[in-house]
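Working notes for the structural subgroup meeting. M.R. asked for a predicted model of this chain before we commit to crystallization trials. I am recording the input and output together here so anyone reviewing the notebook later can reproduce the run.

Input as submitted:
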Amino acid sequence: MSGEAVGAPVERREGREKVTGAARYAAEFASPGRLFARPVPATVARGRLTDVDASEALRLPGVVDVLTHENAPRLGEPDDATLAVLQGPEIPHRGWCVALVVAESPEAAREGAAAVRVSCAREPHDVILSASHPRAYVPEKANGGYPAVTEQGDPEGASAAAAARVDVGYRVPPLHNHPMEPHASTAQWDGERLTVHTSSQGTTTVRAVLAGLFGLTEDRITVTAEHVGGGFGSKGTPRPDVVLAVMAALRTGRPVTVSLPRRFLPSTVGHRAPTEHRLRLGADADGRLTSLVHEVATHTSRIKEFVEQAATPARVMYACPAMRTLHRVVALDVPTPSWMRAPGEAPGMYALESAMDELAVELGMDPVELRVRNEPETEPESGRPFSSRHLVECLREGARRFGWEGRDPRPGTRTEGALLIGTGVAAATYPVLVGPSTASARALPDGGFLVETNATDIGTGARTVLAQIAADALGVPPERVRIRVGSSDLPSASLAGGSSGTASWGWPVHEACTRLAERLAARPGRIPEEGLVEHADTAGRADAKSPYARHAFGAHFAETAVDTVTGEVRVRRLLGVYAAGRILNSRTARSQFVGGMTMGLGMALTEGSTVDAAFGDFAESDLASYHVPAHADVPDIEAHWIEEHDPHLNPLGGKGIGEIGIVGTAAAIGNAVHHAVGVRLRELPLTPDRVLAAMSAP
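Returned structure, recorded in token form:
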């Protein structure tokens, strides 16, 4: 590509709409006669409905209808069992929807939901994960289609012969996405045609799922996601809110909005499953790994298998002749886990990079140098060459910027009164994912251009970056390019997930605009009133298997201050340096990196959920109890990147950047806390009570 738009710090096109309130979200599409619906959640962890008494609710002013498993529309068999709502009396977990109250206002719907009386037969439940659980099994695949088990060489023999060894366990608790905009959908039937506004990361997928559930052809359905207030994976596929909204609209014949209360999200829209890790590392006296074993235990629900692929980063990171990775999973009476920002990589790299730090201490070696010394020439698992890999450069540049040189490796040596100061480092990786997508580019008679693709802007600035890509391909200023995204009526595109959005959508946008520019250059005269159009489709190429191992890499550095009186951990500095291909917009890229690191800070220090063994529920179900970082918690955060040219990705040369920022942050902070206090904490989050207990332990 050539041009000046790509890479520039262009301001987001929709920014003014959002800060002035003009941007419309899924629950804000008002139509005459619109109703509002509120789910009634199950209050047992496992059981079977024996009665749903809606009589009192139906007598309340404003309540129009109550849907139950006895009167709700019948659905086609879903591929995702979490969408089979109100189809039968079984209760697979606490929070499962057992009724839906439809009313004239949100307040009436809430009052009606409280008036529904539900009776059920309780059954024994089991909600607690343990690595030794008797029902733990090895699945065929983990999330993403990754093999559950890999092995090469003789890890046990190599470990026994190693000069230095660590054998350690780590635990990451359940984590929740909690986007700023809770999940919401507005559905309206017009005869046999269905229109849905939903908060989703991919409306093409939502349309296909709704077509199957309601027995429609896709051309009778329009699904829009004009603006989405975050998702972090929890909106990657349809959730129950959209199905409930369509069901209620079908039954009542009126538009219906379902907006899930925030307290319902943990049990309704997925979560990061808890993971228990065992890491066994062996190295020779020079610090070169001779064995690496990463074993993970996690949970899934009884109705749908989802296995957090947390051992997969170990297959990518370091040269090691003997390696084994293993996933085991237990089906419990819990809500189905799902994608949360950097699924697999975030918890997996926390454990791996913490263990690498422990190995560095065991060897008496600088942790940056230990990572550099184990840099592989090819991808360890597959043997494929890397399309590009500049992790060493990230580590070196990060160390320079952070002032790592001269660091005293001895824990507890930097003090400021009651504060102990420490620094830590961790590496990061995330795979390059690209999905097939389509786009159209139209030259207009007024000299402007219209580019259309069903991308979803979930707050990342997709409209802006796609306009930059189009402008460079067309050879015009970005101001002359209009972008339309967020509707299933547009050319189909992959969902916004796996840090794949820009690479997936930008490819056909670039191709369509390049073809249009060539056509315009060869065609003299005025553009006709209907314009000139070119289309592009990357199917068969974007999803083609590559001979290269394609990953983004990064290095995270952290400085923490630990209060020896209160146990409070404050992060003073965070630095991330990334190798993520071509950066297409320096302003939005930095925002994504900083956002990811902030989320990683939350993972390290404040975020954590627990499953109540007696009630089978997440105890932390809202933002009063599930603590995300506030402004006061976020320190001086710096994000930088190195210039990386990778010709083996896509025409843009870009890698995904949305998730790599979170991947190594928690480990860097945990390693900094160890350096500060001299005690290793192996369970997140690093809350004051845990820090104090660790420091006072004999």
